[in-house]
Amino acid sequence: MSRGRLLVVSYNWPPIADVGSMRVVKLTKYLRRMGWEIHVLTVRNPDVWRQLGPMETQDGIEVTRTLDPLRLDWFAAAYRKLITSAPGGKAPGTAALGGRGVMVPEFQVGWLATARGAAVRLARRWGATHILATGPPFTALIAAAIAAERTGLPFLADLRDSWTLDPSTRYPAPALAMFDHALERFVLDKAGKVVVVTHAIRRQYVNHYPEYENKFITIPNGFDPEDFPRAQVANDGPFTITYTGSFYPRTPPTTLLLAAQHLAARGVDLRVEFYGRPDPGVAAQVARLKLDDVVWFHGFRPLREAVEAATRSNLLYLLMHTHYPQAMSDKLFMYLATGLPILYEGPDGEAVSFLLRWNANVRFVQPGNVDQMEAEILDAMRYDYPTLARRDILYWDAYGRMTQAKRLDTMLGALSRHES
Fold first, then answer.
1. What secondary structure letter does DSSP report for 389?
2. CA-CA distance, 5 to 54, in Å (whole number)?
3. Cα distance between residue 98 and residue 172, in whole Å
């Protein structure tokens, strides 16, 4: 028996294979197993910054793709290339033109021209009973809010990051800030519930929008147990440190690489493996430090392959953006699910307390402290860690994607009763 017909509006969907797609793909996978019929509205011509590649897809999910006729990202990408090629790496006072807040709500806003009408038509013709939208890009949330307003359907908004309250947002003019806040308030007003991914983001939004306090619900990122190999395989090679995923902007793994250089000079048998989108800056740094025999780049790989590589590692490197302490990335949850030791370099925030709660073998390094990084790696190599990690069943139950999908299912059911 069908639980309902869920129209999902998301800019991120395969073949977009970045972390933005991961959450919506995994949650819709389990919602479908629970009996929801799902139709996804997404973009046909994604922006130049998206990672395209192999990504899990689900049978039985209908997908409609519409064009972004403006493609403002081309302008932004060209300008960023221009300013970064200028002497010194940027043109003083103008680099912010490529950042968030310059275009409201973002450079993908051109998709709204087709997405808003398509969302309304799909909701009516397909017979949707609910609407769910996820962002960023927040254009998807605006399109879904318009569709909810015109159809009267219950609407659930999923914010994977803060919108106007994101610490990296810089508005060149007060009018842009006012307009962006008005768009955000429009979405919050039309949504029956607003899902955020960390408690810190929820507190931030409740403080800013106290009138919507009862709407904000935290459903964090998580991991999919089906991505893990059934049997763990021990690493019988050199001591291996693994990092999966892309690097945050302006947050390269310099501390780890310098520590690896020092250790290699001392004859320490060490390997560092990177799985994820190729980063030319990191590759150039590895070449300058003469670490080609120590650091291995595997490029972008399917998620299950990256997870399998992580489970073979001796130490998992978790590098977080120093200016974004509220971040709780997908890889944090996947790393914890392995049960392996974690090497954390990042700010003190919600991620730190979460790591301490669920993993006794976390090593913390202050951002940029090479000596501390080197010492922690050496100590990890001396420590008698289990050959095969022991996974925490309570953690797997709490943060598996099925558990999160069940919470969404409950919320969507509650919205149905409220609307009726």
1. P
2. 27
3. 11
Alpha-carbon distance 185 to 171, whole Å?
17
The neighbour count for residue 85, using CB atoms within 10 Å, is 10
pLDDT average, residue stretch 170-195: 96
Task: Give the H or E element holding residue 170.
Answer: none
Return all residues near 313 (Cβ < 8 A) that are at least 6 apart: 235, 240, 241, 242, 273, 338, 340
Strand partners, 365: 345
**Which residues fall within 8 angstroms of residue 96, CB to CB, at 6 or more apart?**
102, 170, 172
Q: Which residues contact 36 (CB under 8 A, 6 or more apart)?
A: 2, 3, 4, 5, 6, 409, 412
Cβ–Cβ < 8 Å for 171, 180: yes
Residues 6+ apart with CB under 8 A from 18: 12, 50, 51, 246, 277
DSSP at 143: H
363 secondary structure, DSSP code: E
* Bigger pLDDT: 417 vs 83: 417
Residue 95 reports pLDDT greater than 60: no
pLDDT in tens, 57-80: 888 999 999 999 999 989 887 766
Spacing of C-alpha 64 from chain mean position:
23
| 254, 289 Cβ separation under 8 angstroms | no
DSSP one-letter code for 85? T
Q: Pull the structure tokens for residue 312.
A: 């073979």
In degrees, to the nearest 5, what angle opens at C-alpha 255 toward C-alphas 251 and 256?
105
Read off the pLDDT of residues 217-245 as tens digits, 9 standing for 90 and up.
Answer: 999 999 999 999 987 777 778 999 999 99
Q: Give me the mean pLDDT over the 306-320 stretch.
A: 94
Residues in contact with 335: Cβ distance below 8 Å, sequence separation at least 6, in sequence order: 310, 316, 318, 342
Q: Please give the span between the terminal C-alpha atoms of the chain, in angstroms, as a whole number.
A: 20
Q: Which residues pair with 42 in a beta bridge?
A: 65
Which helix (DSSP H) or strand (DSSP E) does residue 216 occupy? Answer: strand 216-218
Q: How many CB atoms are closer than 10 A to CB 47?
A: 21
- Between 19-33 and 401-419, two packed helices, what is the crossing angle to 10 degrees? 70
